[in-house]
Amino acid sequence: MVTGGHLYVGSVPDPGILRAGPQRSEVLVVDLGDLSSRSITLGTSAHRPDDHDSPGLTVDPDGSVTASWTGHDDDGLVHLARTAGEPVRWQRLPDVAFPPQPGLPRVTYANLVRSQGLLWNFTRLNGRTVAMSSADEGRTWSSAPLLGLPVAEGTAPDTPYVQYAANPTRDRIDFVTSTGHPKGIVRNALHSGYVQGAGIFRTDGTQVGTLRAGGPGVDPSALTPVDVPDGPAANDAASPYGQPDLWGSDLRIDADGNPVVTYSLRTTDPSPVEGKRFRHQYRWARWSDEGWERHTIGEAGSELFGAELDYTGLATLDPRDPYRVVVSSDVDPSSGQPLVSSADGAVHRELFDGRSADGGRTWTWRPLTKDSTADNIRPILVAGDDGTTVIVWQRGAYRSWLHRSMAAMVAIERP
Fold first, then answer.
1. DSSP class of 140
2. Has this prediction a pTM greater than 0.90?
């Protein structure tokens, strides 16, 4: 996020850097003028050093910045902090504590969004996606389930994975959600909708639910289908990995108020990279009056690590241009050939800039990184001040959400 000439990036420092002591939730602040930077510790906890706990950020009406973060199913607390007069000075706000429920209340994720005059925070509580909202800048909150899958008695709920975006043109919050987690859902699909007032709507405008305290939330399959995985099933059709899956990456709103998404398809084809299991593809979709227009835009390479076979390096959308993306892949997006670095002879994930001049049907690619000695993953394109665009990504070794050694990288494109 960029505001007031500063870039803000939420993070949880690497376990290898921490070595010992409590987990820290931090914000990296970069002055885009002189390029100085500083990491600010927002809070510490006894949680694992888990990248699920990275803070979400939003700009306040007075120009300050609010951050929110949680543990990863560690407790029922949602934490908040806000800048106090300057980018590197922060003050804690009161925690939000969910009341006791059967078993310990457990929350994961914090997604801050400003819309309809309210401060919203979307989290996951005991497997259900919850919409929190505040009319007094975070002093008091109300909450209601947004998404939830039917749960058989005695079983844990599966968990939808969601991206959110404020849509000021239409005065609402758009979101795109998976059916659940690919490990528990066969042929995981993507669906879309929006929140407006207390209503939960399909993207086509049909109301399918209401935000209500104690309510069940909406089954993702009741929302507008963005895409459903295609392709033949493998021999082991009973396994969640025996059939293809979709997985969301980014959601933005174009100048006309239409949602645009990037996501990935895990095929059942073998990866072209030695030692990896599956081949992935990146896809792009844009909503119009005719519905979702979908296109495959390039090869996404292989799974990020063996325990999560649907994870990729991710694809981000330019907030100013829906026909520009930046992707991370360990193969060339056009040819699918593994990216063997001339620096060390190993395959690494590189960043590529993709552009479409025909409404998303075809894409051209150019490398942003090349011949690296480490992986480049999880790019984010951010609209800066005075027409600048900032690219943020991670470089290093990512073995899991608990075991990683990554540096935050920043590149600035000036007009």
1. S
2. yes
